[in-house]
Automatic annotation (TrEMBL):
Domain (Beta-ketoacyl-[acyl-carrier-protein] synthase III C-terminal) ranges: 282-371
This protein's name: Beta-ketoacyl-ACP synthase III
Highest taxon listed in the record's lineage: Bacteria
Entry-linked SUPFAM superfamilies: Thiolase-like
InterPro entries: ACP_syn_III_C (IPR013747), ACP_syn_III_N (IPR013751), Thiolase-like (IPR016039)
Keywords, comma-separated and alphabetical: Acyltransferase, Transferase
Pfam families named among the record's database cross-references: ACP_syn_III, ACP_syn_III_C
Domain Beta-ketoacyl-[acyl-carrier-protein] synthase III N-terminal: 150-217
GO biological processes: fatty acid biosynthetic process; secondary metabolite biosynthetic process
Length: 373
């Protein structure tokens, strides 16, 4: 039987950053503009004044200190509060393709492979910048891969669901190697005017190369012991942007066409589901939580990750056991757990076990158990 192995990972990090103080300063300037503009309606009790944001709240509630973004200036302009990313002509590579190529090239180099060794590309992320042609086919062409490609979206769990699809393709023989790439431009669908969520997201792109075991050198990469996916429908994280928006003009510009969530409900409902999924997955592989050397968890909220790790292990996890990257990157949707894996896997030794686990909108949870070769 063919077995699938993770042989390389890559990461594209946009150079621009925004720290909490800068973001809050822009948000609070917007609040002042809004409240001045609506002073009469506010005084008459017809409108509630907007409340300011605070860096102390952001760090305490989420663990986020800064985020990388494609464009700083547009986000920090209180009159705009949206990144400025100029449209490109059809003859130029798309922004997501550019990000993907950097991350894929790093994953290939880490694995010691070239495009000639790869048969498929899956672009798996929470938002695609156009409907078609598929971004993945553009990436396939940009890398020079002779094979097939497709896009998929399971919000924050896109990369782990994409990993399962890649494992299936490698193990059923339809591809020798598959690149799973997650170009997340979260700043494009975040409402920077919403106090409850303006601080949550950042931009990044990850890539993972999944190959046949026989093509990967001894002691290189990670065996994939199993994947487990779980979905349960919920409206608590939602984005109603879509191709039917133009068919009802009354909805255009409404806040629900960007990311909206009931953050506290998500926290309460998703955390136990994630812990149960990881525990059940380990049990099905005859493994105990004590056997796990590291958990690369989805990076949405530090308190949430500490709670999940505690539920799985029955005690507090050290930062070595559940590394954190959200302080630096914020929530990068599906890229988050893969960034943690990419940055915190080199010190594992042969036989060490780990769990990559994503969770988010859907709800969706993806658990991937790996073992250092
Ligand atoms: N500054 C100061 N105070 C604030 C702010 C702010 N910015 N925002 C809220 N407050 C206040 C509130 O008004 C409230 O005040 P009061 O107690 O007086 O009513 C108080 O702070 C507490 O508010 P919350 O209950 O909302 O705060 P929480 O402690 O719950 O923290 C979090 C909010 C950080 C959002 C937290 O609930 C959280 O992280 N939850 C988990 C969310 C999560 O994991 N979501 C996953 C979404 S990501 C995903 O699935 C991918 C989607 C696709 C990508 C989309 C890209 C854009």
């Amino acid at each position: 039987m063919i077995k699938a192995v993770i042989s390389g990972t890559g990461l594209y990090t946009p150079p621009a950053t925004i720290d909490n103080d800068e973001l809050v300063e822009a948000f609070n300037a917007f609040v002042e503009l809004y409240n001045n503009e609506h002073a009469e309606a506010i005084a008459a009790g017809e409108l509630a004044p907007l409340q300011p944001s605070s860096s102390a709240f952001i760090e305490k509630a989420s663990g986020i200190k800064r985020r990388h973004v494609i464009d700083r200036e547009g986000i920090l302009d209180p009159q705009r509060m949206c990144p400025h990313i100029p449209e490109r002509s059809n003859d130029e590579p798309s922004v997501q393709c550019d990000m993907a190529v950097v991350a894929c090239n790093e994953a290939l180099a880490q694995a010691g492979k070239t495009a000639a060794d790869v048969d498929a590309v899956i672009v798996a992320c929470s938002n695609l910048q156009r409907a078609y042609p598929a971004i993945s086919i553009e990436v396939q062409q940009a890398l020079g891969i002779d094979g097939f490609a497709y896009d998929m979206n399971v919000a924050c769990s896109s990369a782990t669901f994409g990993l399962q699809a890649a494992v299936n393709s490698v193990e059923n023989g339809s591809a020798r190697a598959v690149l799973v790439v997650s170009p997340e431009i979260c700043s494009g669908h975040l409402n920077f005017r919403d106090r409850d969520s303006h601080f949550i997201f950042g931009d990044a792109c990850t890539a993972i190369l999944v190959e046949r075991e026989e093509n990967v050198g001894a002691g290189q990469g990670f065996d994939i012991l199993g994947t487990r996916l779980k979905t349960t429908f919920s409206n608590n994280i939602r984005n109603n942007f879509g191709f039917l928006n133009r068919a009802d003009e009354s909805g255009i510009g409404q806040p629900d066409k960007l990311f909206i969530q009931q953050g506290r409900k998500v926290f309460k409902e998703v955390s136990p589901m994630v812990a149960e999924t990881i525990q059940g997955h380990l049990e099905s592989l005859s493994l105990a939580p004590d056997n796990v050397r590291r958990m690369w968890l989805h990076q949405a909220n530090l308190n949430m990750n500490q709670l999940i790790a505690r539920k799985v292990l029955g005690r507090d996890a050290t930062e070595d056991e559940a590394p954190v990257i959200l302080d630096e990157y914020a929530n990068t949707s599906s890229a988050g757990s893969i960034i943690a894996f990419h940055k915190h896997k080199a010190d594992l030794v042969s036989g060490d076990l780990g769990v990559i686990c994503s969770f988010g909108a859907g709800y969706s949870i993806g658990s991937v158990v790996v073992r250092r070769r």
